[in-house]
């Protein structure tokens, strides 16, 4: 396993599609991983993503390990509980804490799910949005409010969903409309596109072509679980499958070898196995960059 000592990140020229706050291939950072990287971060990991709610105010061993990592490797935040599309008032206290965390650890960007997680009480799940013009207007205004508090752009992720309470717009129109009206960034989750394309019967690459691709800041890729009846559940608990790898490479060929984050939340394997998938991202990025 190639590793780098905890030292400043080299200022290399970005390849096509790599411009922006992060580049290359990243990994979702979990507390169980920090001990293995207390002194050295694997060379192939270009950035980490973490959920700020799980790290804000954390001291002791985990706090020290995070500090060592954040001093040498770029971090991005991916929130879990802002509930940006929800009916409850926006959590200003949470945003204030996140703003402080971003400054403390020099976080490069902050993303959230285009979904909601509470209506006065935290449900710790991503609830489906109504695909309506009213929801577009409501959510976009809340994004602008959040951006004013954070004093930085917010990035929204297209989510997997299994039903919707109301559908006046199709999914791609809803996502595109929110992002454009809010004037924010897009975290394009390739696995979520694949999951939704199977569950809801559309062509995934055509969906991606219709997204506001000029707003993409980075990509997500992950594994999922297939129920006996064929329904796909977005678990982040398995290896990435070949059709998702193929969709990722097709996306690179459309927009360039954009920074890509591997998510693994459950059934976390060894670091060596995670690095195999990280290298699979790099291979596809290099292959597409060579053709540009």
Second rung of CATH, namely the architecture? Alpha-Beta Barrel
Name of the CATH superfamily: Divalent-metal-dependent TIM barrel enzymes
Helix percent reads: 25-40%
What is the CA-atom radius of gyration, in angstroms? Answer: 18 Å
- Tally of contiguous helical segments: 9
Structure class:
alpha/beta
CATH class: Alpha Beta
Low-confidence stretches: 1-18
Strand order of the largest sheet: 2-4-5-6-9-10-11-14
**Secondary-structure element sequence?**
EEHEEHEHEEEHEHEHHEEEHEH
**CATH topology description:** TIM Barrel
Quantity of strands, as a count? 14
Proportion of strand residues = 15-25%
- Roughly how many Å apart are the termini? 30 Å
Number of domains: 1
Characterize the overall form. globular
Mean pLDDT: 90
Largest sheet: 8 strands, parallel, barrel
Concise description?
The chain is of the alpha/beta class and 292 residues long.
Overview of this protein structure:
By secondary structure, the protein is an alpha/beta fold. It has one domain (19-291): TIM Barrel (Alpha-Beta Barrel), CATH 3.20.20. The protein is built from 9 helices and 14 strands. The protein has helices spanning 31-34, 60-70, 92-104, 133-150, 171-182, 190-200, 204-209, 242-255, 271-291; strands at residues 3-5, 25-28, 40-42, 47-50, 75-78, 110-113, 116-118, 122-127, 154-157, 185-189, 216-221, 225-226, 232-233, 260-262. The strands form 4 sheets. The protein has an 8-stranded parallel barrel with strand order 2-4-5-6-9-10-11-14, surrounded by 4 helices. A two-stranded antiparallel ribbon has the order 1-3. Helix 3 (92-104) links the parallel strand 5 and strand 6. Helix 4 runs parallel beside helix 5 (171-182) and helix 8 (242-255) packs parallel to helix 9. The chain is globular and about 50 Å long. The model is unreliable at 1-18 (pLDDT under 50).
């Amino acid at each position: 396993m190639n590793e780098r000592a905890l030292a400043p990140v080299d200022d290399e020229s970005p390849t096509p599609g790599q411009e922006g706050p992060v580049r290359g291939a990243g990994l979702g950072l979990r507390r169980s991983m920090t001990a293995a990287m207390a002194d050295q971060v694997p060379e192939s990991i270009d950035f980490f993503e973490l959920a700020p709610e799980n790290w804000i105010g954390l001291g002791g061993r985990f706090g020290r390990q995070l500090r060592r990592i954040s001093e040498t490797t770029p971090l991005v935040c991916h929130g879990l509980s802002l509930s940006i599309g929800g009916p409850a008032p926006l959590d200003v206290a949470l945003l204030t804490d996140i703003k402080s965390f971003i400054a403390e650890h020099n976080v490069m960007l902050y993303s959230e799910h285009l979904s909601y997680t509470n209506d006065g009480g935290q449900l710790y799940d991503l609830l489906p949005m109504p695909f309506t013009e009213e929801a577009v207007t409501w959510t976009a205004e809340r994004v602008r409010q959040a951006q004013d508090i954070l004093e930085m752009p917010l990035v929204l992720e297209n989510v997997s969903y299994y039903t919707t309470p109301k559908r006046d717009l199709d999914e791609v129109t809803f996502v595109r409309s929110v992002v454009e009206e809010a004037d924010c960034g897009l975290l394009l989750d390739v696995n979520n596109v694949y999951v939704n394309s199977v569950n809801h019967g559309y062509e995934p690459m055509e969906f991606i072509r219709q997204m506001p691709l000029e707003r993409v800041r980075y990509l997500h890729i992950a594994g999922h679980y297939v129920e006996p009846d064929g329904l796909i559940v977005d678990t982040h608990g398995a290896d990435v499958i070949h059709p998702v790898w193929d969709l990722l490479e097709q996306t690179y060929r459309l927009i360039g070898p954009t920074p890509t984050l591997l998510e693994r939340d459950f059934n976390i394997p060894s670091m060596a196995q995670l690095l195999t998938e990280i290298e699979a991202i790099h291979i596809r990025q290099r292959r597409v960059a060579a053709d540009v």
